[in-house]
Design a protein that fits this description.
Oligomer: single chain
Order of helices and strands: HHHHHHHHHHHHHH
CATH superfamily: MetI-like
Number of domains: 1
CATH topology: MetI-like fold
Distance between the termini: 32 Å
CATH class: Mainly Alpha
Number of strands: 0
Structural class: mainly alpha
Number of helices: 14
Shape: elongated
Helix content: over 70%
CATH architecture: Orthogonal Bundle
Length: about 300
């Protein structure tokens, strides 16, 4: 370090230096992310759907969701008035698609939040504590992994009842084991590193070690895994809604697919009622997957050179 740089370092406070390093780290990560074309494409696609959900009231009137105010014919094909045709109640499929993006994204994000909180807490605790508590949580994680996800989600959704919050809760509490195992393996690796041993010698308590040393090191992995979990949550919401376990008072892409199947859109050739929500689900899941893979390459040093 030169004399000028040394003088500048002395004039800044530790907090300013930490913020400067954080900004430099974010800028470096953004440059690496922009170099990944698939991740950038996924970000653009996701941004379009997020804007669609946020500005849904401006793009389509909420009155178009009500059956009593429908003005179209039954399963009317696409036209200049109804760009994506109508459903079996005469409602515009485009209006249903726009408002359905809100529910699908909301359930995906809220379920992911529940899943990541549970998975992170159990993964950190089972990886750091080597006693009976860690072993018990690890066995609990294995037990949830053994049980098939879909039957467990169907049973819980049936018991709790069809509700938007219940669906989010069901998906969240059944999709955390993979995150817990990932965080646990990373915690076991960090626990044996030299700087953690020095912290123990200096008198740092267990929770101080977790909060100051382990959690910051696993946060990049949690962040990257979150984007992949959102994709799984959206697919799960679509599956449960297609099976009739979603909120009947809310329009989502899954309920649209369920309605299309119920009225026989496949046999009647009403492709405009079936294909658009399916394509939207595929695009959003693909976008989150591409973003997650790009973030994994940015945050994982072993993958940066590939």
């Amino acid at each position: 370090m030169s004399a000028g740089e040394l003088d500048r370092t002395r004039t800044v406070t530790p907090g300013q230096l930490a913020r400067q390093r954080r900004r430099e780290s974010w800028a470096r990560g953004w440059r690496l992310f922009r170099a990944n074309r698939s991740g950038l494409v996924g970000l653009v696609v996701l941004g379009i759907f997020v804007l669609l959900a946020l500005f849904a009231p401006l793009l389509a009137s909420a009155d178009g969701l009500e059956v009593t105010k429908a003005t179209g014919g039954v399963l009317e094909p696409p036209s200049s008035q109804y760009w994506l045709g109508t459903d079996d109640n005469g409602r515009s499929v485009l209006t249903l698609l726009i408002w359905g993006s809100r529910i699908s994204l909301f359930v995906g994000l809220s379920a992911t939040l529940i899943s990541m909180v549970i998975g992170t807490l159990i993964g950190l605790t089972s990886g750091f504590f080597s006693g009976w508590a860690g072993a018990l949580l690890f066995r609990l994680t294995e037990w949830f992994l053994i049980i098939p996800f879909l039957p467990l989600a169907i049973v819980l959704a049936s018991v709790l009842g069809p509700s938007l919050w219940n669906i989010s809760f069901v998906i969240g509490v059944t999709s955390w084991p993979g995150t817990a195992l990932l965080i646990r393996s990373q915690t076991l690796s960090i626990r044996e590193r030299a700087y953690l041993e020095r912290a123990k010698v200096l008198g740092a308590g267990r929770w101080h070690q977790i909060r100051k040393h382990i959690l910051p090191n696993v946060m990049p992995m949690i962040f990257a895994n979150t984007t992949l979990t959102v994709a799984i949550a959206i697919l799960s919401e679509t599956t449960l809604s297609f099976l009739g376990l979603g909120d009947p008072s809310r329009i989502s892409w899954g309920t649209m697919l369920d309605d299309a199947y119920t009225v026989g859109a496949i046999t009647t050739g009403s492709w405009w009622f079936l294909i658009p929500p399916g394509v939207c689900v595929v695009l959003v899941v693909l976008a989150f997957t591409m973003i997650g893979q790009a973030l994994e390459e940015v945050l994982n040093p072993r993958l940066k050179g590939r």
